[in-house]
Amino acid sequence: MSREFLSSVLSRGRRVPIVHNVEVANRIDASKLFGLLTFRCAVEADHDLADATLNFQFGRAQAALSGADVAVRHSPDSWLVSFNVNSHLIENGSQTLTGELRLPDGSAARLPEKTYRIDNSGTLAAAVRRDLETFHTPAIFGRVVDSGLFPYGPGETKAWFDQAPPPDVPLSAEPAESVEAAERHLIRWGFCLLPEKLPRELIDGFWAQLEGAIDSGEIQYRRGSSDRIHGAHRLPEGREIWLFPPVLDFLRRFFRDEPCACQTLTYPNSSEQQPHQDTIHLTPYPSGYMCGVWIALQDVQPDSGELVVYPGTHTFPRLRARELGLAKVDKDYSSYVVFDAAIKALIKEHGSEPLAYRPKAGEILVWHENLIHGGSPRRNRELSRKSIVSHYFARGCVGYYDSRGEAASLEALA
User: What is the pLDDT of residues 11-36, one digit of tens each?
Assistant: First the structure.
């Protein structure tokens, strides 16, 4: 990270803070920015930055934030400063970001000035901009993202697929005959199987790369466990799966917007995860503009800890941290037993029944962000359940992680 000295003067015997290069933390490509953005910089300071004020200007947008809202201490003389920008509220085109850190004693240090290209184009992005302006969502705010910043409810732009009358489609756990049939099943039941399958040679090549990366220590995994593997899309054939054209084409059709990739989770075995909605973890505004894509990397056998889905539950109320009274978390999700209990209550209230999913290798399941799903127990621990799940947001939406209070890391694919 490059280092820029903002001042060499001393103030009352204390060193004026040194601000390191400001970077966009949740985009790989910073040349064309979209959606909800997180900016970060390291600051060396022997002052308590919790008492400081940070003034920002990005294009025409301005904000004055307290140090307590943006700064976290890493050591006695080191801080991480992060803040978020709803770039829907910044004009498209080249815009300059400036900032000033002002201390209680009156001294100040400027952030390095940078110019970025903002590109929130398309019908969905325009609708989101109007919603945020009407709701008076701030363009620039502190490091914590919360659902209360967005006009969920009556003022929310409704996704076309959530407004459409549910089609009369029989429930099926088989690949659809066409993308049109798959889309209708997704709208009606909250999930679908695409007509296309992932080629066997791609599955075998990816798994061989993954095994090699585990053996070399490049990827961490406790063999035999139900642990998830993060970031396998960084392997060459993992990225091919991430960008599999039939998946992107289907999501482009469903979102009526460009899909952006968020992450991959690879499972040698069942996750055994409690039934849940993705809404609280991978959260879109407006609702509905995130999909999970689950691909079987082997023929899934009974008692292996099959994926289970609860058909039709995507229409249930969405559970978010604010409504459940849950604090944002880092690694310890133990407090989210409240969320687990709320999901179980919804299932019981509506009499929903799980559907165990036993696909053939290469079959591709897509689910709506609010569908209740989970991993069943591994009754036979000798059986693997190889799979990879990717999550995609629509480019024009706001993407964030409600449970963590963070903006989503997204990669534009077109």
Answer: 444 567 888 889 999 999 988 999 99
H/E/C letters for each residue in the chain? CCEECCCCCEECCEECCEEECCEECCECCCCCECCEEEEEEEEECCCCHHHCEEEEEECCEEEEEEHHHHEEEEECCEEEEEEEEEHHHCCCEEEEEEEEEECCCCCEEECCCEEEEECCCCHHHHHHHHHHHHHCCCCEECCCCCHHHCCCCCCCCCCHHHHCCCCCCCCCCCCCCCHHHHHHHHHHHCEEEEEEECCHHHHHHHHHHHHHHHHHCCCCCCCCCCCCEECHHHCHHHHHHHCCHHHHHHHHHHHCCCEEEEEEEEECCCCCCCCECCCCCCEEECCCCEEEEEEECCCCCCCCCCEEECCCHHHCCCCCHHHHCCCCCCCCCHHHHHHHHHHHHHHHHHCCCCEEECCCCCEEEEEECCCCEEECCCCCCCCCCCEEEEEEEECCCEEEECCCCEECCEEECC
Exposure b/e, 66-77, CB count within 10 A at least 16 = b: ebebbbeeeeee
Q: Provide the pLDDT for residue 181.
A: 97
Q: How confident is the model at residue 106 (pLDDT cuts 50, 70, 90)?
A: confident
Work out the mean pLDDT of the chain and round it to a whole number: 93
**What tens digit of pLDDT does each residue of 190-212 get?**
999 999 999 999 999 999 999 99
- Look at residue 161 and tell me whether its pLDDT is greater than 80: yes
Closest to 307 measured CA to CA, from 345, 273, 279: 273
Angle between helices 245-255 and 179-189 (to 10 degrees): 60
Decide if pLDDT at 2 tops 60: no
Q: Which tens digits make up the pLDDT trace of 272-294?
A: 999 999 999 999 999 999 999 99
* 176, 295, 314, 311 alpha-carbon torsion, rounded to 10°: 60
* Radius of gyration (C-alpha) of the chain in whole angstroms: 23
C-alpha neighbours within 13 Å on the C-beta side of residue 56: 26
Omega into 377 within 30° of 0, i.e. cis? no
Cβ(175)–Cβ(193) below 8 Å: yes
Convert the pLDDT of each residue in 385-413 to its tens digit. Answer: 999 999 999 999 999 999 999 999 999 99
